[in-house]
User: What shape does this take?
Amino acid sequence: MDWSWFHRLGSPPHVYRIAGRLVPWLGWPAAMLILAGLYGGLVLAPPDYQQGDGFRIVYVHAPSAWMSLLVYTTMGSAAAVGLIWRMKVAHAVAASCAPIGASFTLAALVTGMLWGKPMWGTYWQWDPRLTSELILLFLFLGYMGLRDAFEDTQRADRASAVLAIVGLVNVPIIHYSVEWWNSLHQTPSVMKLGRPSMPASMVVPLLLMLAGFTLYFAAVLLTRLRGEVLRRERSASWVKEALQS
Assistant: This one.
């Protein structure tokens, strides 16, 4: 098996160039998908028979919650690759994921609270799903804080990678919390076996938002990764050449 592609991904100048080429191809489709999803969800989709128009917050809440798990999984996986194979680029990917993931997690919590007030009568309940999602936010913040605690980049990479890997155990807990424990949070309506319990007029905009948020994450991740690579390789000769070209 040819593993040359894997080794090229460990090359900072190669990753910097590839990331720069991919960002526009990810960013513009992300914007179009999100705009289409918002129009479909906020304008075209009918009101929910129980929640009325209040359900429309799901078009931001659900994609944000999904992305919080995807970003953390990406961060933890990249940290593991960096720790096992000692790839500096993998650590750079993990470091670039953290603020993005924290933003998505915060958005999921805030929109969930705004939905919870009219539906549950309170902004917050120590529900298993909500509590584990809050722990996820603390893991993102803890990862960033741990990195900042070390002046040496290699020590920061190793210490934060261990935290990121250990924190991966929280991802399945969040996902299955509504099935493992009694929860106020509703069970999955789209990501489940069998047909979705939502009508197509509601599901299609939600899927567009999920796709748009995913491409948006990829675009922002590559943009941040380019900056992280430049920071780490600022004394390398290829950086001066890249900035001058």
